[in-house]
Specification:
The complex is a heterodimer of chains A (about 800) and B (about 180). Chain A has about 800 residues and is an alpha+beta fold. Chain A is built from 18 helices and 32 strands. In chain A, strands 1, 2, 3, 4, 5, 6, 10 and 11 form an 8-stranded mixed sheet that branches. Classes of the chains: A alpha+beta (about 800), B alpha+beta (about 180).
Chain lengths: ~800, ~180
Amino acid sequence: MATQSEKLTTEKTENVFGATLSRRQFIKTGGVLVVGFSFIGSGLLKADTTKPAVLKNSLDPSLPGSWIEIHPDNTVLIRTGKSDFGQGTTFTAYRQIVADELSVPFEAITTVIAGDTDRTPDGSGAFDFLGHGTPNIRKAAAYTYQALLDLASEKLGVPKDKLSVKDGIVSGGGKNISYGDLVKGQQLKLTIPVKGDLTSLFGLTIEGNPPMKPVGEYTVIGKSFKNSIISSKVAAKETWATDVRLPGMLHARVVHPKTLGSTLVAAGPLDKSKFPNSQVVVKGNLVGVVAPTEWEAIQAADQVASGTKWTAWKGLPGNAKLYQHLREEADWTTAPVSKGEADKGDPKPALASTHKKLSATYQLSYMKHAPIGPTMAVADVKADGTVHIYTHNQNPQALRGEIAMMLRTTPHHVIVHSYPGPGHYGRSNGGNAGAEDEAVILSQAVGKPVRVQWMRADDMQWSTQASAAFSDVQVALDEKGKLAAYQIDHYMPAMQDDRPIGAVIAGLPTMPAPQVKSDSVTSTVNGVEDNWVYASVPNVAERGHGTFQVGQKASPLAVGLRDHSMRTPGQFQQNYPRELAISESAALAGADAIQFRIDHATEERAIGVLKAVREASGWDTRPSPRTEATSTGSTPVRGRGVSLMLRSGTYWACVCQIAVTPSTGVIVVEKYTIAVDPGIVVNPSQLKRNVEGGAVMGIGHALFEEVMFDESGITTEDWLSYPIPTMSDIPEIKVVLIHNPKVGSYGGGSEAANALAAPAIAAGLHDATGKIMRRLPMKPAYVQAVLKA
Amino acid sequence: MITLNVNGIRREVDVPADTPLLYVLRNDLHLIGPQFGCGLAQCGACSVLIDGKEVRSCITALSSVGPNQEITTLEGLPARWAKQKGLSAEEAKDTLHPVQQAWIEEQTPQCGFCQNGMMIKATELLESNPHPTLPQIKEAFTTSGVSPNLCRCGTYVAIMEAVQHAATIMAKGGK
């Protein structure tokens, strides 16, 4: 970058498809093209005129930060507010997308900066990375490309439409120049239009419509480039959030309340003879123990916890009565009923007909995100009120807003430094991962940097979980065995509580608990999330019913069973009942479950994934259950089922071939086949790995995962009480990627895969045994009960 | 002072003898390969090799580790391989353990938090069984240790492929 002492020789600006390119030429060499932004919306930070205390560059509209930098040595740097959670998209697909828009090699993009709130421009969460084909980074690159062409046109004296670019070299009229040479000796600043609120869930969005590279000209997208961060992680050279150690930092453990509604009576006394260097911090109902070493903090916290007194509380239904509570006691009347976008006709006449009908209820338990490492964070609250947080969360900018709210300050005083950590599958997409607020509270109290590490039980019992849900389905066939009417009512408590739990326990300001009126996903309204794919059904009614979180109103802490979106949020809870009901309907019609779906779908891509999965799985076309089906005996019986989903522009179909032993109720998935049509496949090998991972997680959701709770709190506490798949549970997994460039766009790839197993396995159980199980998870004891009924 | 032999180097630490090895490795010796996953020996994120056997450092008290027992962390895998193959210091400098090479070539990790333990377990397996079958790999990662090695991202397929790939690299002498 040029410095202020250097002499300006020229300065001018020009319009680039609605963006503004300003140019200052300097005498010295060096130079850069910095792509920044200007606000056109009412950004939170625009309205705030407080002088930034810790802001370095990127968040002040008057000092635009950069999305993309082109350097004189032809290297490129990109920045995104989305932190990587293992999908690898920021390190692979994002570079591929930028490389193609700029017409540079993949390798030219040498630096990717992600997540840090003082070094990235756009915020939002680690979800929907591919942005339905137009993520921010693609538009930023498209604007940049046009600006580079303008520069080259002037430099070479060749009209813009006579220029072409290959590998970062612009050619035309027999002349050529590299991007590096175009920016050399100049400070170029491209200002592009942006709207949104930086610290909101969805962050900023780039506006305007710069020309994009035609799909047919992609040369980098579609290839299996490796994820660069894997090498440093594997070699133990990456700094994880767990590795951050600040000078003078203290270790802390938090003593969480005894129940989800307990208030503090008295913190236990600290045995100073055993723990001379420890200190107890109490803020509201939050009890923290800090010590110079981690082992002392752990032991001292255990000792303090054993003597801490809490009020008793019972305000939850407990596992056994969960669905009874949701059906009979929960108030579904305050949130408006959502309607499906595909609703048409009127199901009532068909449902009143004398043809074959299905009327059933489907239930899904609470599930934990269950990151393999419990949440942790380091906070450093400085004497001047500035706050540095070192963490691993999916939405650093939103966290910044939450911490500022808690401290009654502005986001300008808070910097979130983003590091790799254990994936947690949506749990922190609205900001906090769990421990950041507690680290801030304790750091502020002791005046030193503090590292809060949750133990395994803290993470199981004090984090959020994916909502439990149930759905009532009614289906009627016509005289030909086709679907004449489909009606579904989905019931699910509020699915996203983004309040930082430490702030809630400490009694500090947070956003409100989920309520009806909310400007984000924290509302109690239950939207219809599962995209309808059976377009030929004449009468369709889908409704979503929402309510408050279980225990939220009864808890003196306003806590209860806090929910949070988890991989394929909402749609998982709605697709499972739909797809199992469709398989049951096929059985009712005496039709093959895949052919039945094909016969009711009209979208070519939906039919395409069904045909692909049929062929790849070796599916034998016939109705279910199979003729040999039996629900008794100690010999495994086999069956297969299918499921279908449209999510984020991607079509998915899955076949699970299972074996179940009726006497034990144990289900084993023997072969799992999945077909994926995302339109353009950006990176085949990365997509395949993401899909395989989602597939395995989905087997866990289907067979094992259930949050256990009593009337006071969550009793699930570790990996024994919350089992997830092990390597021995892994079937043969076959992934069929359908590269479909005529779609002209790329859809999402790391969600959905986890949702497809459950309805396919349940249909497989029916195929094998003739018995239908309409409840998740399909634990052996629950399966046994169904088979004996 | 307690003496430890970590990655071929003698280290002295001044900590209580009941401190779990994990905290000593991470906080006192700044070896960041092993991760805190559960503190209960239920997941394997904290695994290290002690005399070639995979152990869970989160429940291994420092006092239970002898001064001459060889502790190998993820950081020590390249040197362990170099020593086994008799590589020169120059050759060893840029060499990763075949298990690490395979993990990169197969693009095994997603978030990667558990993969320290997965690579430690793979190393233990391949040192005793250079050509494991798929059932043997599954057995190693599921029942051979005090608990299964758990991966929440579901990378088991990639791990199985990487173990087989590592076996091939090792059979060729490391390349």
